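User: Can you predict the 3D structure for this chain?
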Amino acid sequence: MAKPPVAEKLFIDGPVGRLEAILERQSEQEPVAIAVICHPHPQHGGTMHNKVAHTLARTFVRMGYAVLRFNFRGTESSEGEFDDGVGELDDALAAIHWMREKNPGLPLWVAGFSFGAAIAVKAAVATPLDGLVSVAPAITRFASGLDSQPECPWLIVQGDQDELVDIEETIAWVDGLEPGPELLILEEAEHFFHGRLLELRESVSDFVE
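Assistant: Here is the predicted structure, written as structure tokens:
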């Protein structure tokens, strides 16, 4: 039976104050790569403890990654105030920079859910990444009008019964990108992937590996 991951609670320096975070990795080995996870909308109850964000983190840990989850500004013990996605991009870039400094030379992936997925997409445009996973990305609200698109391997996962992020809007957005991401649509899955988290984990693992 696999040992539970080693989890360390910490704070990292953000652009407007400290950001609360959790760093996880497998206990018995050095990480093969690193990942940063972005959580859903903080004004709708989203934190780094969200079950989809947690699933994404554990997915990467299972593959031997060191994984940083963090709370955006103004969320739980993170300092600052909500900034409608603008400052939150700076928070994500600070988390990426912190992970790179602590783990020089290792491949870095970013993954996010909903609001966090849109922030992750913007981060992947702003800084080179080795891979990107966007789960139910709230693109039209928080990441529309991008000057360019992520250049790295990129997976989007969304349920066709998503009640918060319109699947047709996502498809139309993806169709306008060239070459664009790989889009995986889970049938009968809704926004929070109730009862489908194992399937989500396996889908992400298959793509990343």
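Helices lie at 51-62, 86-102, 115-126, 139-142, 167-175, 197-208. The CA atoms of residues 33 and 65 lie 5 Å apart.
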